[in-house]
């Protein structure tokens, strides 16, 4: 837990959605999921010290710039726990890539504030924040707030390819509704909707598939494509491995 007068560092691990099925829609429009998520060793880094400001150093190479405004999930998480801090956020997880970077940043703030077990508060900040709060490996249901944590397996390698494209999550879910709730051809029901929102995703899927001989899967609502295995020669690709932060 963060203490006054000290400097604390938290790592915010990205999450990779290995499978995603949309199993229903609530009356309020939120979609119900059955998904498997794992933490990977790509991570942001947050350094907290005395003060009251947020500085963002975005080294992710992502197409969407992350700003330090009041809507940043770090700022929102600080307000939610009633704490102030000078936060230096080093962004390595590209925004809009479907890897839960902002959610993991918010989860890091909750851990720093001693709220590592407050899944209800995490859910109020965002659907992916409860998983990111603990990390590891889990089957995720509801709108992201129902978690069945699973035993972490030995580290597994995946190769990611994140296009210079931003695919808004809300737009993908709206398109999924408009298309009549299609089932994805692979492990992700949101793939048809994401491709309808941003057709240029298809060419990047082909790049990764041609380079690896595997069938890429979309991470969450996009825009990252991934395949199992380490393929370090993929141009623009990134090899990551699963981690179990809760066991550290």
Can you give a write-up of this model?
With 248 residues, the chain is α+β, with helices and mostly antiparallel strands. The chain folds into two domains: 142 residues, Ribosomal Protein S5, domain 2 (2-Layer Sandwich); 91 residues, Alpha-Beta Plaits (2-Layer Sandwich), CATH 3.30.70. It is built from seven helices and ten strands. A hairpin with a 3-residue loop joins strand 5 and strand 6. Helix 1 packs parallel to helix 2 and helix 5 crosses helix 6.
How is this structure best summarized?
This protein is of the alpha+beta class and 248 residues long.
Q: How would you sum up the major sheet?
A: 10 strands, mixed
How many beta strands in the DSSP annotation?
10
Return the CATH class of the largest domain.
Answer: Alpha Beta
Shape: globular
**Helix and strand sequence:** EEEHEHHHEEEHHHEEE
CATH topology name of the largest domain: Ribosomal Protein S5, domain 2
What's the architecture of the largest domain in CATH terms?
Answer: 2-Layer Sandwich
Strand content: 25-35%
The domain tally reads: 2
What is the mean predicted local confidence, pLDDT? 93
Uncertain residue segments: none
Number of DSSP helical runs = 7
Q: Compute the gyration radius: what is it?
A: 17 Å
Amino-to-carboxy terminus distance? 15 Å
In which range does the helix fraction lie?
A: 25-40%
Look at the helices and sheets and give the structural class: alpha+beta
């Amino acid at each position: 837990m963060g203490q006054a007068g000290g400097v604390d560092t938290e790592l915010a691990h990205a999450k990779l959605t290995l499978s995603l099925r949309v199993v229903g829609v609530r009356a309020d429009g939120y979609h119900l999921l059955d998904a498997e998520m794992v933490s990977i060793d790509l991570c942001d880094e947050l350094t907290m010290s005395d003060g009251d400001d947020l500085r963002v150093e975005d080294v992710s190479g992502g197409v969407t710039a992350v700003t330090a405004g009041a809507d940043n999930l770090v700022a929102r998480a600080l307000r939610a726990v009633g704490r102030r801090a000078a936060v230096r956020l080093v962004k390595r997880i590209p925004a809009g890539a479907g890897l839960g970077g902002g959610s993991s940043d918010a989860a890091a703030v909750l851990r720093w504030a001693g709220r590592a077990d407050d899944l209800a508060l995490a859910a109020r900040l965002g659907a992916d924040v409860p998983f990111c709060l603990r990390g590891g490996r889990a089957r995720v249901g509801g709108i992201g707030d129902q978690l069945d944590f699973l035993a972490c397996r030995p580290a597994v390698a995946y190769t990611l390819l994140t296009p210079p494209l931003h695919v808004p999550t809300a737009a993908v879910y709206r398109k999924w509704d408009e298309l009549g709730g299609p089932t994805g051809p692979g492990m992700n029901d949101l793939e048809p909707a994401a491709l309808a929102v941003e057709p240029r995703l298809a060419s990047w899927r082909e790049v990764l598939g041609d380079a690896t001989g595997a069938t890429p899967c979309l991470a969450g609502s996009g825009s990252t494509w991934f395949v199992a295995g380490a393929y370090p020669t993929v141009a623009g690709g990134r090899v990551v491995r699963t981690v179990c932060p809760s066991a550290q």
